[in-house]
Every structure is written in C-alpha cells, then in structure tokens.
Amino acid sequence: MRLVILGGGESGVGTAILGKKKGYDVFVSDFGKIKGNYKEVLIINEIAWEEEKHTEDLILNADVVMKSPGIPDKSPIVKKLLGKGIPVLSEIEFAAPFTDATIIGITGSNGKTTTTMLTHHLLKSAGLNVGLGGNIGKSFAWQVADNKYDSYVLELSSFQLDGIVNFKPHIAIITNISPDHLDRYDYKYENYIDSKFRITMNQTEEDYLIYDADDEAIAEWFKTHTTKAKLIPFSLTKTFSEGAYIKNNKMEISINQEEFTMDTEHIALEGKHNMKNAMAATSVAKLMQIRKSTIRESLSNFQGVEHRLEKVLKIQNVQYINDSKATNVNATFFALDSMNTPTVWIVGGVDKGNDYNELMSLVREKVKAIICLGVDNKKIIDVFGNVVDMMIEVDNMNDAVRMAQRLSEKGDTVLLSPACASFDLFENYEDRGNQFKQAVKNL
Fold first, then answer.
1. Which of 6, 69, 145, 326 could form a disulfide with 18 if both were Cys (CB 3.0 to 4.6 A apart)?
2. pTM of the full structure
C-alpha cells in the first residue's frame, strides 16, 4: 500500500512515522520547504521525501493520501487526486483506526484550545494516561505510533474534520460557532457550520455530544439535523436536568444522575466565555468518572493558555494583556467583554472578512483608545474612528506598546486582541504575542 503525504510539518511527519510502522510504502511531498528538524526525522526513519515541488508521478500512484489541514481542497494536486478517485484523508482519520484509546474530540470557532488544555489537565491530574494532540502539541498519528496513551484529548479544526470518513470520538465537544475561515467554504457560513458538525456524524447512542446551548448557529443546525449521540448541553442562562449551567454564581452539572457543583469564584479562569469552557471540560471529567475533589482542585489551579487573555505584567498600575490568539471578531468580543477597566486596545492584521460592528457596543463602553497594528487599517478606522477619542496607526509591535503606555493611566488595561490573522507583520499569532510580551518587558 502506497501512502503519500502532502505537507512535511507536524501532522505530515507524524503520519509518515505511523505509516512506516504499519508497513506502508511512504512518500512525503511538500510544496514549500521542510523544516530541518522534520527533515532529520524523515532521514533517520528512511522515509522518502521531496520539498518545493509536487512530482505528480510520485503522488498520483498513491493508494491513500493524507493531506495537511493547511492545504485547501482546491489546490491542483488535490483536485487531480480526487479526480482519480484516490482517498484524501486527514491525519485524524488515518491514525484513529490504529488505536483503541478513548478519544475526546473538541471543535469550535473559539475556546477550543482552552477547553482542550483544560480537559487534558483535568484528566491528567486524575492520574489518567492521556495524550494531547490534534491541532495543538505533538501529532496524534505520531503518538499513536508510539502507542502510549489510553485516551486522547484532540483539538480538531474544521479542516481536519473535512478529511474524516469513519472517525468518531467517544465524547465530542462543540464550544461555539461563529464565522471564520469562510474563504475555505465558498464564503457560505452553512458549509462551515456543517463542517464543525462532522465531529458527531459517526457517533452512536453510546457516545456523547457536549455543546453550547446558547449558540445560535448550533441551535439552527439542530432544527434540521439530528445526531445519535447522547446530548449534554451547557449554558449561562438556561438550566437542564441533564447538562451544565451557571446559577447563583455556581457551576452545576448533572450527568447520568450524578451532580457536581462548584462556586465560580474558585475557578481559575476568568470571564463568561471561560465559564463555558470550564463547563464543557468538567462534563468530560464527569463522563470519565473523575472524583469531584480532583475536578475542583484542577479547575482552581489551571494556568490557562499562552496568548489567550494572558496577563503579562502590571506597570505603573496598568495591566498588559496578551490575547494574540484572538484571530477573529468573536474571540475579541470575549476579550473586550471581560475587561473591567478603561482599555487601550491594540487591533489589526489580516482581516478574514470581519464585521467589526459586532464590537461597537463594547468599544463604546470600554475602549478609550485604539492602536491599529496592521498593513491596512482602513476598515477599523472607518468603523471606530468617531467612537473613540484616540486612534493611532503603527507598523511594529514596539511602537504599539510604547504608544499604549503613553495613552494609558493608572488603573487602565492595555489589551492586544487583534481580531485578525497575523501574517502581514508577523510569522504567526505566537510570534505576535511573544513580540508583545517582550516589548512590554522592555518598557
């Protein structure tokens, strides 16, 4: 069996290792450059590879193809493969049959990284032998090749879910759905929503789907679709006999006739959106039979995720917060919503079709100054130019942070929450967040 892998990054190389171990004839092809560390792994494992090209003769003879999530279905080589009827799968689909581990799959437009990390923290703290992968950390396929975990918590993007056929998590979570990556879905929101719900398409009555009952797109989908999985909703406003909710500042969870309650003030994560992430993760912990005392302790000591509402430093009584991971409007909405002090907001980058008007009421209420950090800031200036007292454009992070310090007073917050991708001025959102933190430390 010939396995061809498109993309020589983390998921590609992980799949190559697993494929080789399972006796496939493996070939890795990357249209860009393969990083040095990945190249070494391929060479040590005697796996054939090429970079900066796709040689059709070596690709179109595949029995099965795994493509990295970043490669769109519209790319010429993928079109040719599909035209020949060669199955093109995601890493998750390829690797899942080779493990008997319990799989917890987490998707959503926002909150999925925090929910994934928190779920993993809850299970690991309880002594479970659990792996973390998917869209974060070490490749799922690579971990399956090493065969060490009894369960996996996987963060799954819509791109990964587009490439599944039989994959089914025992427990699935949809944190929320808001427009994102629509350029990959013919600019049709319903296509993107359907893509997220692929996480539950193969689930049976033995499986569980945990979801945000306050989310409009999710509610709409349920009007015309069903899933066999047992449903566990969570909500900030509704209450359930089976599900999770917040009432009188208490998180209450009822699953399989078992109750769990905890005061929200003891939960380390702050903000309404994080209460939702905590309810989703705790629901998993309850399903996995983790003791209440362990859950309480883990929820109170969880450190959060880097670049997601990460408190950097307080300088002259001004709090600097790094939310570089907010690459869409919905994520920035959560960030602004959780601000309790006058805010200097650093925003901008590569816009994926954003509608900034959704942020208008929060900006009026909380933002005193806006610093635009992007190559093209016209849209942001058009929307908010008359709403805030100060609006400044900069083209690098040091200037952004120095300006923010000038515009802020005691008791204020400086918030980097770009609502955009980072590729105009930075390598990725991590690079953007790290530059912000360094610039703050240099003040």
1. 145
2. 0.81
